[in-house]
Amino acid sequence: MHAEPADQTSFDIADLVAALPEGGVVTDQTKMDSYRWDRANDPDAGLPLAVVRVGTTEDVQVAMRFAAEHGIPVVPRGAGTGLSGGASAVDGCLVISTERMRAIEVDPATRAVVVEPGVLNAEVKAAAAEYGLWYPPDPSSFEICSIGGNIATNAGGLCCVKYGVTTDYVLGLTVVLADGTAVELGGPRLKDVAGLSLVKLFVGSEGTLGVITRIVLRLIPAQRAASTLVASFPSLDDATQTVLDITRQMRPSMLELMDKASINAVEDVTKMGLDRTVEAMLIVQSDEADAAGAAEIAEITAIAELNRATDIFTTDDPDTGESFIVARRMVITAMETKGSLLLEDVGVPVPELGALVRGITAISENRDVVIALVAHAGDGNTHPLIVFDATNSDESARAQLAYGEIMELAIALGGTITGEHGVGRLKKRWLPDYLSPEALALNHTIKTALDPQGILNPGAVL
Fold this sequence. Notes:
There is one protein chain. 35% of the residues lie in helices and 19% in strands. It has helices spanning 13-19, 29-32, 57-70, 121-129, 147-153, 160-163, 198-202, 236-249, 260-270, 290-306, 318-329, 331-336, 353-367, 393-412, 431-434, 437-450; strands spanning 25-26, 50-53, 74-77, 94-97, 104-107, 112-115, 133-134, 170-176, 182-186, 211-218, 220-221, 227-233, 254-259, 280-286, 311-315, 340-343, 370-376, 381-388. Helix 8 runs antiparallel to helix 13 (353-367). It is globular and about 70 Å long.
C-alpha cells in the first residue's frame, strides 16, 4: 500500500510552517538535498515537499496531523546512517527529521535511561558509563548512528552474540501514530506482560507504523575488561568451522570474521600490519572474570589450532585489543574507497555459515564482481559487500544480480534477507520469498490497521 504524492494545490505548506517553531520546516531544495538519502544511496530517492525538523512529540503530532489531513507521505529520518534505503525520501513527502530531539536522562536506581531518538548510540554509552552502567548494542557505526534509527531497524552489533540486540534493551516507547495520536507503550519495568507486546511491534518497524519520539532503554552493569584473541586462517572453511566449534561450547562476548578482501582494504588504510596473505581472520573477545576469562581464551586457542590457524595472537591490553576492534568496525568505510558498494546483511543459522560463505564466494566468481565479507560470525549475521564501478553499466548489472542471488542463497539455507539493517526499499522485492504468504498477509493487516492511508514511509518494507 502506497500513498500517492500529495496534490500541492490542495493545501498551503505555510499553514504547517506557521504551526511549528521558527526554522522547523525547510522547503529550500538545496538544503533538503542531504535529507533525500541514507547511507544506502538509493538511486530512486525522491524530492521531498518539506523537511520538518521536530523538537518535541507535539511537533511530530502537528506534522502527522497535517500529513494525514492532506494525504501527504511521511518519511521518518534519524541520522541517515541506514544501509537499506529505509530513510530514502519519496516525491512530495514530508521528511520528519528527529535530529533535534536530543534529551537524555539516566536513572541509575532503575538502571534505565530515557532518551529522545536523535541521541547517538555512543552518547547513550557515555551517559551510562558515568554511573558505572553500560548500553550493550553496538553497531559498527555506533559513533554516528542515532538510537531512533537503531530501534527502527533493531540494530545489533559486535557484542550481540552474547548480549543481544536493540529490542532486548527497549523497555518503553512514545510513538506518534499516522493520525497524530501519541501513545505511551511500556516503561521502566523489567517485567510487564499486560496487554499485547506493542513495544516489540514497533522495534524494527522501520518507520512504517509510527514515529518514535521517546525511548526507555534498559542498562546493565559495566562490562568487565575483555581479553582479545586474533586468529588467522589459510581458508574460509577453517575459519567458519572454528566459529561453529566455539559456539557449540561457549558464548564469547565477541566473535567477528573478516575475509581476505576486507583485511586488505583495512590494511590499505591503517597500515597496522595485518597479514594480507591469509583468507580469513577471527577477532574474539572474552569478558569473563579473571581465571574464567583466561580459561575461555585458552579453550578458543585450542579450537583455532585444531582448525589449522596459522597465527594466533592474544592480549589482555585493552588498547591493543581495541585496535583490532576498530579495524573490524572500519571495513565498510575502507571498502568504500574501492568503488560503489551494495551492502548486504543476510543471516543464517550458525551451522550454515560455512555453506553461506562458500556460496557467496561462488557468486563472486560467477558474476565476476568483488565481494568482501565481514560478519558477526557468532550469530550467523554476515555483511557481504559487493564492490562495483557505478559508471560501468555491465558491472553494475552483475552486481545487482549478485545482490539478489546472495539473498536467495540465504533463504535457501534457512536464513533471512536482513539481520539488522532492515528491509528498507532495497530489499523489499525479496521479502515475499522470505516470508510465508500467511505471514506477509499478517504484516499487511497490521500495517493497514495502524496506517490506513498508507502515508508512513510508503515504499519501504511492505
